[in-house]
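User: Hi! I'm working on a homework problem where we have to compare a predicted structure to a textbook description. Could you give me the structure for the chain below?
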Amino acid sequence: MANPKCIGCGVTLNRANDSEAHVIPNALGGHLSPKGLICRTCNTKLDDLADNALIEAFGDWPTLLDIPRDRGQNPPKLLDTREGHRVRLERDGTLTRSNVVYDVQPIEAGHKLQIAAGDMKTFRHLLQRAQKQFPHFDAKVAEQYAKVVGDEGDDQLKTTLDFSPQAVFGGVVTAVWLYLAKTTGRAFMDWGRLLQVIANVQKHGGTWRYLINGLPGLKGPDVPLGHKIIVRSVPSTGQLIAYVEILGIMKIGGLFADAGGPAILIEHIHAYDVLGRRDRSQEFSIDPFEFERTNWKTVGIGPSEAEKLRDHFRQALESVFVKRYHDRFSTP
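Assistant: Happy to help. Predicted structure tokens:
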């Protein structure tokens, strides 16, 4: 059997140039990562054009929620608090102050020295600095009295989300393109067209809209922190509609392709429970009547409706991510 070819550049794939095509990035808890689809060079190009921005759009939340990954763990993050402190966040929720402090104040008996840092390497460097400044200062003894200081009181972390077209729409197009290639064995648009579409949707949104209530006609259980990729045609018009949901909070859909006339039914449903780490695709179905009567040009919220989007994502952040964060540490 002949080796497969890259759906991007057409090069024959082998052990040296094949790569895992992360349909939804691993950093966001995606688990679909087929090989035999795309070469390393094209995959890296998609990372640079779209996927890295999609990951960055979720800010520090994957670590705050400790989103399960198929490979590796969520990295520590440095965050600022509303009271101006810098803290280091570990994936287990531990917060430690990381502000670098070297403060010398004259007092009656000599000098008062306050030293603080976010890691022991920097802390020891400051102790050595103090020992040079004050020859009688014993750095080794001082280190024995060092203590870890956490974030206490009512201070709050500064966190962000950025679901603007520039941040996420390119990643949505890439996810659908890779998912269809995995599911059907063929690319629904060539490489040049894909790059053009990514650039267009990042600039002005294209045919994508924010489907804040989910995909019309989709039936299935509530999966609070889950991923969905759904592609379905409207046979009477030939429109191919795509929908991508990431971590239950970012929900985007719209026209992906158009046959220009009646076409056969195409339907692919992928649903994944990120926290439960299991595929739940078989639990979902689409009501064809509700789906096919939807006006895909007006459903949901458009990219230009900034105020509505701000209000929606502010509420969604509280009800999905903030709730999950508090649930992680609540006492049973």
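For your comparison, note the following. The helical segments are 40-57, 61-64, 120-133, 139-144, 165-184, 191-204, 288-292, 306-329. The radius of gyration is 25 Å. Good luck with the assignment!
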